[in-house]
Design a protein that fits this description.
By secondary structure, this protein is an all-beta fold. The chain contains no helices and 16 strands. The chain starts with 14 loop residues before the first strand and ends with a strand.
């Protein structure tokens, strides 16, 4: 077993999330905000802007098109396509700039858990779900797609599933 640290080129020893892309590059998210790439046996920081290099990287997702999505706690969502990138925050329609979990479903929609709602990129539009949409709270903690394609969302008060229009609380699972 090999352990890598800052002395090997990591930007931080505290790795919070990681993802491998189709080129076998490993993307590492750290709590000090640096997105680090591991490719060809070397670590290198992937600095998008001075603002984001101090942000906590909470989740990284590689989608089916090999785009890398980076969820941060302060600067929203970052989509990396080849060497280009796009930022998504409240200005672009997200419910919050605080992103904590990402999922791509079988229909290639990107689901985004934020600290004030659940968002989905669907057909180039951003749709937000919250308590008014059936979630038991506006603070989703996890999202998952079941093998039958059902989207389920975990929150502190309980589990909900998406019926295609809104979320329905699962009061009792037997």
């Amino acid at each position: 077993c090999q352990t890598y640290t800052k002395s090997d080129g990591l930007s931080s020893n505290n790795i919070y999330c990681m993802q491998e892309d189709n080129q076998h590059t490993i993307w590492l998210g750290t709590t000090n905000g640096f997105l680090t790439k591991y490719e060809n046996g070397k670590f290198s920081p992937f600095v998008i802007s001075d603002e984001t290099k101090t942000d906590f990287v909470a989740d990284i997702l590689k989608d089916s098109r090999n785009n890398i999505w980076v969820g941060t706690l302060e600067h929203g969502l970052i989509k990396i396509t080849n060497k280009d990138y796009s930022f998504y925050t409240e200005a672009e329609g997200l419910s919050s700039h605080c992103i904590n979990y990402l999922l791509e479903d079988k229909d290639k929609n990107i689901w985004i858990c934020t600290d004030v709602g659940l968002c989905v990129f669907k057909n180039e539009a951003i749709i937000t779900f919250n308590e008014n949409s059936g979630l038991p709270t506006n603070m989703p903690q996890s999202i998952h797609e079941l093998t039958d394609g059902t989207i389920v969302c975990g929150t502190a008060p309980g589990l909900s599933y998406y019926n295609g229009t809104r979320f329905i609380s699962i009061d009792n699972i037997e």
